[in-house]
Amino acid sequence: MIENYKSIQYEALHFDEKVMLKRAEEFFHLMNHRRSVRSFSSRAVPEKIIENLIKTANTSPSGANKQPWIFCVITNPELKRKIRIAAEEEEYKAYHGGMSEDWKKDLSYLGTDWKKEFLEIAPALIVVFRKPYDIVNGQKRKNYYVQESVGLACGMLLVAIHNAGLVSLTHTPSPMNFLQEILARPENEKPFLLIPFGYPDEKVFVPDIHRKNMEQVLNWYK
Ligand code: IYR
Fold first, then answer.
1. Which of 32, 101, 121, 213 ranks highest by number of CB atoms within 10 Å?
2. Cα–ligand 1 centroid distance for 114 (angstroms)
């Protein structure tokens, strides 16, 4: 097995620690500014920008470097409409019996409901599919740590979208199988996440919620 290993020299980034701290702080502030946004402008995002966002997501690490993802970008208005209608149908059922009372209570402070106009208003949707297996020469080849890998790639995508000055929402209509049908994806591609993104609407309101502090999330063993 090891004879397949071929290496190339890698040059890591080098900064002195003052610069490192400044970069780390600035990057934290940049990312701390990110919010999930549900009100979009319909203004189109240039294709070259979208391409670079996907390129960034595609830099993610993945199990055995299988890169078990595919990103579908939907700017076609008819497809966006179809996706909105199907998503609202599922969401209506979820909000009227599918979700537990506890779940709905946990969501209540986000102000969400079954209506998903943003799926048509946002200039672009990215549907991320995970690939539990690839088909190689007609044979099924299993991928590894697929959820983790695709989750990481989605994280990178959200960072890239925010860094470009655009806004996004991680939307998970449940169930999401309709995305596989509407987008005519093959059997080995399963919908993972639906991300409407674009320019924000002129005035945007977000829920008044807060991030956990360091005492709550960091345990340091010195
Ligand atoms: N999928 C529904 C409900 C929902 C679920 C979670 I967990 C959220 O963080 C937000 C919403 C919806 O998109 O409205």
1. 121
2. 9
